[in-house]
Amino acid sequence: MTTKLILRKNEEHRLLSGHLWIFSNEIAGIEGEQIKGDIVELYSAGRQFLGQGFFNPSSLIIFRLLTRARDAITPEFWTERIRSAADYRSKIMGGQKSLRVVFGESDNLPGLIVDKYADVLSVQFLSAGMELNSDAVVAALRRVFNPAGIIARNDSSLRVLEGLEQTSGVLWGDVPTELEIEQDGIRFNVHPSAGQKTGFFFDQRENRRALAQYCAGKTLLDVFSYTGSFSMYALKNGAAKAVAVDSSEQALEAASCNARLNGVADRFSAVKADCFDFFSDENEKASGEKYDIIVLDPPALVKNKKHLQAGFRAYVKLNAAALSRLSPGGLLATSSCSHHLSPADFRVMLMQAAGKARKMVRLVEQRSQGRDHPVLVSMPETEYLKFAILSTLLS
Ligand code: SAH
Protein backbone atom coordinates (compact mmCIF):
# COMPACT_ATOMS: atom_id res chain seq x y z
CA MET A 1 0.00 0.00 0.00
CA THR A 2 1.25 3.46 -0.87
CA THR A 3 2.35 5.52 2.11
CA LYS A 4 0.13 8.50 2.94
CA LEU A 5 1.29 11.80 4.41
CA ILE A 6 -1.41 13.79 6.16
CA LEU A 7 -0.94 17.53 6.51
CA ARG A 8 -1.84 19.60 9.53
CA LYS A 9 -4.94 21.73 9.20
CA ASN A 10 -4.60 24.60 6.68
CA GLU A 11 -1.08 23.61 5.57
CA GLU A 12 -2.16 22.83 1.98
CA HIS A 13 -2.46 26.44 0.81
CA ARG A 14 1.12 27.00 -0.31
CA LEU A 15 1.06 23.75 -2.27
CA LEU A 16 -2.30 24.60 -3.84
CA SER A 17 -0.94 27.93 -5.04
CA GLY A 18 1.90 26.29 -6.94
CA HIS A 19 4.70 25.61 -4.45
CA LEU A 20 6.14 22.09 -4.54
CA TRP A 21 7.50 21.54 -1.03
CA ILE A 22 6.09 20.48 2.32
CA PHE A 23 8.24 20.95 5.43
CA SER A 24 8.42 18.35 8.17
CA ASN A 25 6.65 20.55 10.75
CA GLU A 26 3.59 20.77 8.45
CA ILE A 27 2.84 17.05 8.70
CA ALA A 28 0.26 15.71 11.19
CA GLY A 29 0.74 12.01 10.50
CA ILE A 30 2.25 9.31 8.28
CA GLU A 31 0.41 6.10 7.40
CA GLY A 32 2.44 3.21 5.99
CA GLU A 33 6.09 2.35 5.50
CA GLN A 34 8.64 5.17 5.71
CA ILE A 35 11.19 4.68 2.93
CA LYS A 36 13.55 7.54 2.13
CA GLY A 37 13.07 8.70 -1.46
CA ASP A 38 9.86 6.71 -1.96
CA ILE A 39 6.96 8.15 -3.94
CA VAL A 40 4.08 8.73 -1.50
CA GLU A 41 0.63 10.34 -1.50
CA LEU A 42 -0.18 13.64 0.16
CA TYR A 43 -3.52 14.49 1.79
CA SER A 44 -4.93 17.55 3.52
CA ALA A 45 -6.16 17.30 7.11
CA GLY A 46 -9.66 16.88 5.65
CA ARG A 47 -8.39 13.92 3.56
CA GLN A 48 -8.44 15.67 0.20
CA PHE A 49 -5.91 14.04 -2.15
CA LEU A 50 -3.27 16.67 -3.09
CA GLY A 51 -0.77 14.71 -5.17
CA GLN A 52 2.17 12.33 -5.24
CA GLY A 53 5.77 13.16 -4.53
CA PHE A 54 9.11 12.26 -2.99
CA PHE A 55 9.26 11.47 0.70
CA ASN A 56 12.38 12.13 2.75
CA PRO A 57 12.10 11.83 6.53
CA SER A 58 15.79 12.87 6.88
CA SER A 59 15.23 16.28 5.30
CA LEU A 60 13.44 19.42 6.48
CA ILE A 61 11.77 19.24 3.07
CA ILE A 62 9.86 16.08 3.89
CA PHE A 63 7.85 16.04 0.63
CA ARG A 64 8.47 17.35 -2.92
CA LEU A 65 5.47 17.29 -5.22
CA LEU A 66 5.87 15.38 -8.48
CA THR A 67 2.31 15.36 -9.77
CA ARG A 68 -1.16 16.42 -8.72
CA ALA A 69 -2.59 13.34 -10.54
CA ARG A 70 -3.16 9.83 -9.19
CA ASP A 71 -1.62 8.10 -12.24
CA ALA A 72 1.24 5.66 -11.61
CA ILE A 73 4.76 7.04 -12.10
CA THR A 74 5.96 5.03 -15.13
CA PRO A 75 9.08 5.23 -17.34
CA GLU A 76 6.95 7.33 -19.74
CA PHE A 77 6.29 9.82 -16.93
CA TRP A 78 10.02 10.57 -16.65
CA THR A 79 10.46 10.71 -20.41
CA GLU A 80 7.58 13.18 -20.78
CA ARG A 81 8.88 15.43 -18.01
CA ILE A 82 12.39 15.49 -19.46
CA ARG A 83 11.07 15.98 -22.98
CA SER A 84 9.04 18.94 -21.76
CA ALA A 85 12.20 20.47 -20.23
CA ALA A 86 14.02 19.94 -23.54
CA ASP A 87 11.12 21.41 -25.55
CA TYR A 88 11.07 24.56 -23.42
CA ARG A 89 14.75 25.11 -24.19
CA SER A 90 14.39 24.48 -27.93
CA LYS A 91 11.64 27.09 -27.95
CA ILE A 92 13.39 29.67 -25.75
CA MET A 93 17.10 29.04 -26.29
CA GLY A 94 17.19 28.35 -30.03
CA GLY A 95 19.87 25.95 -31.19
CA GLN A 96 22.15 26.05 -28.10
CA LYS A 97 24.01 22.73 -27.85
CA SER A 98 25.48 23.34 -24.41
CA LEU A 99 23.20 24.57 -21.66
CA ARG A 100 21.30 23.57 -18.52
CA VAL A 101 18.58 21.25 -19.79
CA VAL A 102 16.90 20.45 -16.47
CA PHE A 103 16.62 22.93 -13.58
CA GLY A 104 14.96 20.95 -10.80
CA GLU A 105 11.70 22.27 -9.39
CA SER A 106 11.38 24.83 -12.23
CA ASP A 107 11.08 21.91 -14.65
CA ASN A 108 8.76 19.96 -12.38
CA LEU A 109 11.63 17.54 -11.66
CA PRO A 110 12.36 18.21 -7.96
CA GLY A 111 16.04 17.86 -7.14
CA LEU A 112 17.25 17.01 -10.65
CA ILE A 113 19.88 19.19 -12.35
CA VAL A 114 21.20 18.31 -15.79
CA ASP A 115 23.79 20.30 -17.74
CA LYS A 116 24.47 19.40 -21.37
CA TYR A 117 27.99 19.78 -22.71
CA ALA A 118 27.49 19.10 -26.41
CA ASP A 119 26.77 15.35 -26.31
CA VAL A 120 27.71 14.71 -22.68
CA LEU A 121 25.24 15.13 -19.82
CA SER A 122 26.34 16.07 -16.31
CA VAL A 123 23.70 15.24 -13.71
CA GLN A 124 23.13 16.12 -10.06
CA PHE A 125 20.61 14.16 -8.01
CA LEU A 126 19.86 16.60 -5.20
CA SER A 127 16.84 14.90 -3.63
CA ALA A 128 16.56 11.42 -2.13
CA GLY A 129 13.66 10.73 -4.50
CA MET A 130 15.68 11.50 -7.60
CA GLU A 131 18.49 9.36 -6.24
CA LEU A 132 16.15 6.40 -5.72
CA ASN A 133 14.71 6.86 -9.23
CA SER A 134 18.06 7.52 -10.88
CA ASP A 135 17.97 4.46 -13.15
CA ALA A 136 14.60 5.50 -14.60
CA VAL A 137 15.82 9.10 -14.94
CA VAL A 138 19.02 8.05 -16.73
CA ALA A 139 16.98 5.86 -19.11
CA ALA A 140 14.69 8.82 -19.86
CA LEU A 141 17.68 11.15 -20.41
CA ARG A 142 19.07 8.66 -22.90
CA ARG A 143 15.75 8.46 -24.74
CA VAL A 144 15.35 12.24 -24.99
CA PHE A 145 18.95 13.38 -25.62
CA ASN A 146 20.69 10.29 -26.99
CA PRO A 147 23.97 11.44 -25.37
CA ALA A 148 27.41 9.86 -25.79
CA GLY A 149 27.82 9.71 -22.02
CA ILE A 150 26.25 10.68 -18.69
CA ILE A 151 28.23 11.58 -15.58
CA ALA A 152 26.87 12.11 -12.04
CA ARG A 153 28.37 15.09 -10.19
CA ASN A 154 26.88 14.29 -6.84
CA ASP A 155 29.37 16.31 -4.82
CA SER A 156 26.96 19.15 -3.97
CA SER A 157 26.61 20.07 -0.30
CA LEU A 158 22.81 20.13 -0.84
CA ARG A 159 22.96 16.33 -0.80
CA VAL A 160 24.07 16.45 2.83
CA LEU A 161 20.77 18.17 3.73
CA GLU A 162 18.98 15.23 2.10
CA GLY A 163 21.10 12.69 4.00
CA LEU A 164 22.80 11.53 0.78
CA GLU A 165 26.45 10.69 0.17
CA GLN A 166 28.65 12.93 -1.97
CA THR A 167 29.81 10.73 -4.83
CA SER A 168 30.55 11.16 -8.52
CA GLY A 169 31.08 8.86 -11.46
CA VAL A 170 30.12 7.89 -14.97
CA LEU A 171 26.54 6.57 -15.11
CA TRP A 172 26.47 5.60 -18.73
CA GLY A 173 28.52 5.62 -21.94
CA ASP A 174 31.77 7.52 -22.48
CA VAL A 175 32.66 10.73 -20.71
CA PRO A 176 36.00 12.23 -21.79
CA THR A 177 38.17 13.90 -19.13
CA GLU A 178 37.99 17.09 -21.13
CA LEU A 179 35.83 18.36 -23.94
CA GLU A 180 35.13 21.59 -25.75
CA ILE A 181 31.91 23.56 -25.82
CA GLU A 182 30.91 26.73 -27.61
CA GLN A 183 28.94 29.68 -26.26
CA ASP A 184 28.10 32.54 -28.61
CA GLY A 185 31.00 31.54 -30.87
CA ILE A 186 33.49 31.46 -27.96
CA ARG A 187 35.29 28.21 -27.19
CA PHE A 188 35.61 26.72 -23.71
CA ASN A 189 37.48 23.71 -22.50
CA VAL A 190 35.43 21.85 -19.86
CA HIS A 191 36.45 19.07 -17.46
CA PRO A 192 33.16 17.31 -16.71
CA SER A 193 34.55 15.11 -13.93
CA ALA A 194 36.95 17.56 -12.26
CA GLY A 195 35.53 21.07 -12.72
CA GLN A 196 33.56 22.89 -10.01
CA LYS A 197 29.82 22.11 -9.75
CA THR A 198 29.09 20.39 -13.08
CA GLY A 199 32.13 21.98 -14.82
CA PHE A 200 30.87 25.24 -16.30
CA PHE A 201 28.52 27.98 -15.09
CA PHE A 202 25.78 28.36 -17.68
CA ASP A 203 23.68 30.60 -15.41
CA GLN A 204 25.79 33.68 -16.25
CA ARG A 205 25.80 33.23 -20.04
CA GLU A 206 23.30 35.99 -20.77
CA ASN A 207 24.99 38.27 -18.25
CA ARG A 208 28.36 37.72 -19.94
CA ARG A 209 26.68 38.60 -23.20
CA ALA A 210 25.13 41.74 -21.66
CA LEU A 211 28.48 42.91 -20.31
CA ALA A 212 30.37 42.08 -23.51
CA GLN A 213 28.65 44.93 -25.37
CA TYR A 214 30.43 47.49 -23.16
CA CYS A 215 33.91 45.96 -23.36
CA ALA A 216 35.47 47.20 -26.63
CA GLY A 217 38.78 48.93 -25.92
CA LYS A 218 38.37 48.57 -22.13
CA THR A 219 40.47 46.96 -19.41
CA LEU A 220 38.73 44.27 -17.36
CA LEU A 221 39.40 42.77 -13.94
CA ASP A 222 37.63 39.40 -13.64
CA VAL A 223 37.42 38.64 -9.93
CA PHE A 224 36.49 35.06 -8.92
CA SER A 225 37.14 34.23 -12.55
CA TYR A 226 37.02 30.42 -12.41
CA THR A 227 37.90 29.42 -16.02
CA GLY A 228 37.70 33.02 -17.25
CA SER A 229 34.32 33.01 -18.99
CA PHE A 230 33.67 36.71 -18.43
CA SER A 231 37.23 37.48 -19.61
CA MET A 232 36.76 35.47 -22.80
CA TYR A 233 33.50 37.24 -23.63
CA ALA A 234 35.16 40.62 -22.99
CA LEU A 235 38.30 39.84 -25.01
CA LYS A 236 36.41 38.36 -27.93
CA ASN A 237 34.37 41.54 -27.94
CA GLY A 238 37.40 43.81 -28.20
CA ALA A 239 38.56 44.40 -24.61
CA ALA A 240 42.11 45.77 -24.46
CA LYS A 241 43.07 43.38 -21.67
CA ALA A 242 41.61 41.10 -19.04
CA VAL A 243 43.14 40.07 -15.73
CA ALA A 244 41.56 37.05 -14.03
CA VAL A 245 41.86 36.54 -10.27
CA ASP A 246 41.01 33.27 -8.55
CA SER A 247 42.42 31.16 -5.71
CA SER A 248 42.28 27.95 -7.73
CA GLU A 249 45.40 27.11 -9.72
CA GLN A 250 43.44 24.57 -11.76
CA ALA A 251 40.77 27.13 -12.68
CA LEU A 252 43.40 29.64 -13.79
CA GLU A 253 45.21 27.03 -15.89
CA ALA A 254 41.90 26.28 -17.58
CA ALA A 255 41.35 30.02 -18.08
CA SER A 256 44.74 30.38 -19.80
CA CYS A 257 43.89 27.37 -21.95
CA ASN A 258 40.60 29.06 -22.92
CA ALA A 259 42.50 32.25 -23.80
CA ARG A 260 44.75 30.26 -26.14
CA LEU A 261 41.77 28.43 -27.67
CA ASN A 262 40.19 31.77 -28.52
CA GLY A 263 43.38 33.44 -29.77
CA VAL A 264 43.32 36.13 -27.08
CA ALA A 265 46.18 34.94 -24.86
CA ASP A 266 48.25 38.05 -25.64
CA ARG A 267 45.65 40.21 -23.87
CA PHE A 268 44.95 37.82 -20.97
CA SER A 269 46.73 37.30 -17.67
CA ALA A 270 45.91 35.36 -14.51
CA VAL A 271 46.64 36.14 -10.86
CA LYS A 272 46.39 33.42 -8.22
CA ALA A 273 45.15 35.09 -5.05
CA ASP A 274 42.47 35.13 -2.44
CA CYS A 275 40.17 37.82 -3.85
CA PHE A 276 39.63 39.48 -0.47
CA ASP A 277 43.41 39.69 0.02
CA PHE A 278 43.83 40.87 -3.56
CA PHE A 279 41.76 43.96 -2.82
CA SER A 280 43.36 44.63 0.55
CA ASP A 281 46.92 43.91 -0.61
CA GLU A 282 49.00 47.00 0.07
CA ASN A 283 51.23 46.37 -2.96
CA GLU A 284 48.21 46.15 -5.20
CA LYS A 285 46.79 49.34 -3.76
CA ALA A 286 50.13 51.07 -4.09
CA SER A 287 50.39 50.09 -7.75
CA GLY A 288 47.18 52.10 -8.06
CA GLU A 289 46.09 50.25 -11.16
CA LYS A 290 42.48 51.00 -12.04
CA TYR A 291 40.21 49.09 -14.38
CA ASP A 292 37.44 50.24 -16.71
CA ILE A 293 35.31 47.22 -15.89
CA ILE A 294 35.38 44.92 -12.86
CA VAL A 295 33.44 41.66 -12.62
CA LEU A 296 32.64 40.19 -9.20
CA ASP A 297 31.29 36.65 -9.23
CA PRO A 298 32.01 35.14 -5.82
CA PRO A 299 30.75 31.77 -4.61
CA ALA A 300 27.71 32.03 -2.30
CA LEU A 301 28.93 34.15 0.62
CA VAL A 302 25.70 33.53 2.56
CA LYS A 303 25.74 29.77 2.96
CA ASN A 304 22.68 29.61 5.22
CA LYS A 305 20.22 31.91 6.97
CA LYS A 306 22.34 32.05 10.14
CA HIS A 307 25.20 33.61 8.18
CA LEU A 308 23.11 36.27 6.45
CA GLN A 309 24.66 39.19 8.35
CA ALA A 310 28.27 38.06 8.03
CA GLY A 311 27.77 37.19 4.36
CA PHE A 312 26.05 40.52 3.71
CA ARG A 313 29.01 42.37 5.22
CA ALA A 314 31.43 40.39 3.04
CA TYR A 315 29.46 41.40 -0.08
CA VAL A 316 29.52 45.06 0.99
CA LYS A 317 33.28 44.92 1.58
CA LEU A 318 33.99 43.26 -1.74
CA ASN A 319 31.75 45.55 -3.77
CA ALA A 320 33.08 48.69 -2.07
CA ALA A 321 36.66 47.56 -2.75
CA ALA A 322 35.84 46.89 -6.41
CA LEU A 323 34.14 50.29 -6.80
CA SER A 324 37.30 51.93 -5.45
CA ARG A 325 39.41 50.21 -8.11
CA LEU A 326 37.35 51.46 -11.07
CA SER A 327 38.66 54.12 -13.38
CA PRO A 328 36.47 57.24 -13.58
CA GLY A 329 33.13 56.39 -15.14
CA GLY A 330 33.92 52.66 -14.94
CA LEU A 331 31.48 49.75 -14.75
CA LEU A 332 31.04 47.17 -12.01
CA ALA A 333 29.33 43.89 -12.98
CA THR A 334 28.46 42.28 -9.68
CA SER A 335 26.71 39.05 -8.74
CA SER A 336 25.41 37.07 -5.83
CA CYS A 337 24.38 33.44 -6.16
CA SER A 338 23.38 33.14 -2.47
CA HIS A 339 19.84 31.77 -2.18
CA HIS A 340 19.53 33.42 1.20
CA LEU A 341 20.28 36.95 -0.02
CA SER A 342 17.06 38.26 -1.59
CA PRO A 343 17.03 40.59 -4.61
CA ALA A 344 15.92 43.34 -2.19
CA ASP A 345 18.86 42.60 0.17
CA PHE A 346 21.18 42.66 -2.83
CA ARG A 347 20.04 46.18 -3.69
CA VAL A 348 20.55 47.35 -0.10
CA MET A 349 24.00 45.75 -0.19
CA LEU A 350 24.86 47.75 -3.33
CA MET A 351 23.64 50.93 -1.69
CA GLN A 352 25.87 50.33 1.34
CA ALA A 353 28.87 49.43 -0.85
CA ALA A 354 28.44 52.65 -2.86
CA GLY A 355 28.26 54.61 0.40
CA LYS A 356 31.33 52.92 1.82
CA ALA A 357 33.31 53.60 -1.35
CA ARG A 358 32.00 57.19 -1.45
CA LYS A 359 30.85 56.70 -5.04
CA MET A 360 27.76 57.82 -6.89
CA VAL A 361 26.54 54.70 -8.61
CA ARG A 362 23.83 54.18 -11.23
CA LEU A 363 22.13 50.94 -12.13
CA VAL A 364 22.69 50.23 -15.82
CA GLU A 365 21.11 46.80 -15.90
CA GLN A 366 19.67 44.44 -13.35
CA ARG A 367 19.57 40.82 -14.38
CA SER A 368 19.15 37.32 -13.00
CA GLN A 369 19.97 33.75 -13.99
CA GLY A 370 19.82 32.69 -17.66
CA ARG A 371 16.64 31.48 -19.31
CA ASP A 372 17.79 27.86 -19.09
CA HIS A 373 17.43 28.33 -15.28
CA PRO A 374 13.86 29.66 -15.27
CA VAL A 375 12.35 30.95 -12.04
CA LEU A 376 9.16 29.18 -10.97
CA VAL A 377 7.08 32.19 -9.96
CA SER A 378 5.21 30.30 -7.23
CA MET A 379 8.54 29.20 -5.68
CA PRO A 380 10.86 32.09 -4.82
CA GLU A 381 13.49 29.50 -3.83
CA THR A 382 14.14 28.88 -7.54
CA GLU A 383 15.48 32.42 -8.02
CA TYR A 384 19.04 32.61 -6.76
CA LEU A 385 21.24 34.69 -9.06
CA LYS A 386 21.34 38.45 -8.69
CA PHE A 387 23.42 40.37 -11.24
CA ALA A 388 23.79 44.10 -11.73
CA ILE A 389 25.84 46.30 -14.00
CA LEU A 390 26.61 49.57 -12.26
CA SER A 391 28.12 52.72 -13.67
CA THR A 392 30.03 55.12 -11.46
CA LEU A 393 29.41 58.82 -11.81
CA LEU A 394 32.09 61.45 -11.39
CA SER A 395 31.36 63.47 -8.28
N1 SAH B 1 32.98 33.81 -12.82
C1 SAH B 1 33.05 32.41 -13.05
C2 SAH B 1 32.43 31.56 -11.94
C3 SAH B 1 32.97 31.83 -10.56
S1 SAH B 1 32.73 30.51 -9.46
C4 SAH B 1 32.43 32.06 -14.39
O1 SAH B 1 31.82 32.94 -15.01
O2 SAH B 1 32.55 30.91 -14.81
C5 SAH B 1 33.55 31.08 -8.05
C6 SAH B 1 35.07 31.03 -8.14
O3 SAH B 1 35.57 31.64 -6.97
C7 SAH B 1 35.70 29.65 -8.18
O4 SAH B 1 36.53 29.55 -9.30
C8 SAH B 1 36.55 29.55 -6.90
O5 SAH B 1 37.79 28.89 -7.11
C9 SAH B 1 36.77 30.99 -6.58
N2 SAH B 1 36.97 31.35 -5.18
C10 SAH B 1 36.23 30.99 -4.10
N3 SAH B 1 36.66 31.64 -3.01
C11 SAH B 1 37.70 32.42 -3.40
C12 SAH B 1 38.52 33.35 -2.73
N4 SAH B 1 38.36 33.62 -1.42
N5 SAH B 1 39.46 34.01 -3.45
C13 SAH B 1 39.63 33.75 -4.76
N6 SAH B 1 38.85 32.90 -5.45
C14 SAH B 1 37.89 32.24 -4.78
Strand content: 25-35%
Strand order of the largest sheet: 16-15-14-17-18-20-19
Decide which structural class fits the backbone: alpha/beta
Ligands in the model, by name, code or SMILES, are: S-adenosyl-L-homocysteine
Q: Percent of residues in helical segments?
A: 25-40%
| Average pLDDT, all residues | 95
Give the uncertain stretches in residue-range form.
Answer: none
The largest sheet, given as strand count, sense and whether it forms a barrel, is: 7 strands, mixed
Gross CATH architecture of the largest domain: 3-Layer(aba) Sandwich
Form type: globular
Distance between the termini: 71 Å
The CATH class of the largest domain is Alpha Beta
**Radius of gyration, whole Å:** 23 Å
CATH fold naming of the largest domain: Rossmann fold
User: How many helices in DSSP terms?
Assistant: 12
User: CATH superfamily of the largest domain, please?
Assistant: Vaccinia Virus protein VP39
Number of strands: 20
Number of domain modules: 3
Structural description of this entry:
This protein has 3 domains: 64 residues, Archaeosine Trna-guanine Transglycosylase, Chain: A, domain 4, CATH 2.30.130.10; 103 residues, 2-Layer Sandwich (Transcription Regulator spoIIAA), CATH 3.30.750.80; 192 residues, Vaccinia Virus protein VP39 (Rossmann fold, 3-Layer(aba) Sandwich). The protein contains 12 helices and 20 strands. Helix 2 crosses helix 4. It is globular and about 70 Å long. The N and C termini lie far apart (71 Å). The model has no long low-confidence stretch (mean pLDDT 95). The protein binds S-adenosyl-L-homocysteine (SAH). The site of S-adenosyl-L-homocysteine (SAH) has 18 residues, from helix 7 and helix 9.
